[in-house]
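hiii, so i know i said id send this last week but things got crazy w the move. better late than never?? heres the sequnce for the chain we talked about at the cafe, plus the structure i predicted for it. fair warning i was half asleep when i ran it
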Amino acid sequence: MTWSLASYTAHGTPGFGVLRADGALVAPPDLKRWPGPLELLEDWAAAEPVLRNLDVANAPAVDYDALLPPLRYPRKVICAGVNYRKHMREMGGEIPADGWRPFFFLKAPTTSVIGPHDPIVIADAARARYDWEAELAVVIGKKGKNIENERALVHAAAYCVSNDITARGYHKREAPPADAFSYDWFAAKSAEGSLPLGPGLTPAFLVPDPQDLRMRLWVNGELQQDESTADMVCTVAELIAAASEVVTLEPGDVIATGTPSGVGVARGLYLRGGDVVRVSIDGLGALENTVIDPTEEPS
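okay and structure toks below
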């Protein structure tokens, strides 16, 4: 980890600063011109050169209470499905011989997002069958429509770690009226608190190659996912370009780029109350969230 833009509370008051590699949270004076991360992203052309010259080492430290989601209210959360080769195989599929167009779905942007250490609160666990999905998320800083692949990364302002929590039990409907209604992506993907993000937003200029990042996920200390972003079927640039063909990408949009092999559903494993899920991406930091099932009696 180098450094990232982090949101926090200090003595109950929200703030916006820099999370350093040594774990310290600091408040560089040059950040004060922006009230928060969304305003900074909306002013990305002016903000990027300021960030490149931030004096992170000598900025005053912040005595903070907790880290908040680095971007509490994304404009859109666009997720790429089956975008890792090995994950596609573990789910019983293969990349078509004539190529693969990115497959996208949406998560509810304002109620799905939680912070890097917030609890994952699950409901009706036995039926919902909550699963983990470690993912690299890219945050848009430059508006664009019909973006060319070659220019796509110019639109990426930052990267962060994400976990696309999925209610597998709600995905396939039991009695659809027709085949077209067999899958309920909204119920499976948009449960409240189903997208831990963080720990901060690492500026894209600090990430030399988004296709060369090691991503890992542990449940209760047991490694479940361990893969490089090099295994992506469609690169980050290709995902940005493809998404922009459908919608105008705006500052503050988040694109989750897919999960590698090692998800629970492939082995009949699901999250339960008390589980601790840790996700790390080299250079970007880590999330660690405890699963809470309100129906369970405290031990």
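btw The chain has a mean pLDDT of 94. thought thatd interest u
miss u guys!!
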